[in-house]
Hints:
The complex is a heterodimer of chains A (283) and B (292).
Chain A: H1 7-38, H2 61-67, H3 71-103, H4 111-123, H5 130-139, H6 146-171, H7 174-182, H8 187-198, H9 200-216, H10 219-224, H11 232-240, H12 247-267, H13 269-276
Chain B: H1 7-34, E1 36-37, H2 40-43, E2 50-51, H3 55-63, H4 65-97, H5 104-111, H6 113-116, H7 119-130, H8 136-143, H9 155-183, H10 188-195, H11 200-228, H12 232-238, H13 249-258, H14 263-290
Antiparallel strand pairs in B: 1-2
Helix pairs in contact in B: 1-14, 4-9, 4-11, 4-13, 7-12, 9-11, 9-12, 11-14, 13-14
Amino acid sequence: xxxxxxxxxxxxxxxxxxxxxxxxxxxxxxxxxxxxxxxxxxxxxxxxxxxxxxxxxxxxxxxxxxxxxxxxxxxxxxxxxxxxxxxxxxxxxxxxxxxxxxxxxxxxxxxxxxxxxxxxxxxxxxxxxxxxxxxxxxxxxxxxxxxxxxxxxxxxxxxxxxxxxxxxxxxxxxxxxxxxxxxxxxxxxxxxxxxxxxxxxxxxxxxxxxxxxxxxxxxxxxxxxxxxxxxxxxxxxxxxxxxxxxxxxxxxxxxxxxxxxxxxxxxxxxxxxxxxxxxxxxx
Amino acid sequence: xxxxxxxxxxxxxxxxxxxxxxxxxxxxxxxxxxxxxxxxxxxxxxxxxxxxxxxxxxxxxxxxxxxxxxxxxxxxxxxxxxxxxxxxxxxxxxxxxxxxxxxxxxxxxxxxxxxxxxxxxxxxxxxxxxxxxxxxxxxxxxxxxxxxxxxxxxxxxxxxxxxxxxxxxxxxxxxxxxxxxxxxxxxxxxxxxxxxxxxxxxxxxxxxxxxxxxxxxxxxxxxxxxxxxxxxxxxxxxxxxxxxxxxxxxxxxxxxxxxxxxxxxxxxxxxxxxxxxxxxxxxxxxxxxxxx
Lengths: 283, 292
């Protein structure tokens, strides 16, 4: 635009700037407040002090108390194990399924119908299956173990991993595979040695998205774990339930719980919308 | 796309079998339970479900005012939250898509932070802010002379507070999806409109919105379906209170099933919710299917 800057333009840009910054403040203030709360000693934790060193003396005692043992570290280990393994399971199954749907033509049931069957899982309200899950896990003595949650979380991530994998594989030209097949490679070998290496960025993105959703999930974790395999959201929910909330512990738990998904989401920002809309919207 | 060899089944069968075991089988089981009476509080875990036909559904429809109260709030919450998230998200996306300017990427990235957070973490952050005696929001409101808000003890304020939290966390989703869609639009229609002397408003109303329509419908449906599953904020922030004013359908079903251990009745209630969501789900599924 080669237009000269007139006063109307400047006014418009100031207004836009104010709106954007106001929204930024609304977005980030809760994080800042929680982090600052985590640095306050118990005596002043309810006081509305905002600026460390000027208004109050920051302390790491809350962090120390949480990290030295007790419920906190255990919940983080549980969350980590469940998220790492359930995302791996979702990724493997989703990549196979996505590849199958992208490269082969199924005549009896059409490819689209299979994909839709998998997608329909994404729409189902989770409360509709928690009682059967509870009963199944109880039957196999899996209640309050990692495995119950790993299975549950990998199931609800399947629509995401399948649809995204299908989307990524569709973008890889089929000619590369055809030449490998001509050279005598098996289908399986072509998939492992030709297609997979080409789609690593996409597969990593799928894994990360599954990780975030598993890390954040509450309802299944609440239903299937009690006092051994509880995850971080369950720990936070449990601590929130007391009349006198332990703000000092909660502020630390929550800060720690937020860091992994936020860092990963910022790193894979490009894929976030694509994942959440199952490939319908791309950056 | 044209190879048709049985080897394809080896790729897709693991997932299909896994889903049949972990989704279809549980859904059938809970449908069967919906026609049974199975109250663990009475008979203990070793008791057996007893077939009672449509009894659970009749009870829910005829006499469970608590369930319909929760259902009513769930739909109200969804309608208000999705509408406001869409409008704010659209506004922000348009502001950021006006022109290339320094710091644009920064805003885009900073705005998305809330939606990556665990909802329970969000619940705690907002409980810090919304606490009626020592919360920061009330301190600010009092300092500027607006007085205390009864965030957690007044039914309508509490209902609104939960919606506000949802808006805080999920507006970024609308914003990012719309921004992505806006940036993918072709420029030709805009050039033509500028030559014809169209105003900004006319361009938005008659060019941008119609071109965005497919994306708008998809993300509205996605958000609506996810909002109707509302559970985490209720569990973490209000526990359904004050009274029963912020109970959501999922929260009430969870209580019936896993606090009162009335498995049969909870299954029936969850099927009512599932059926109510079915039409919306079908619309969304058909849209995504077309995009394949």
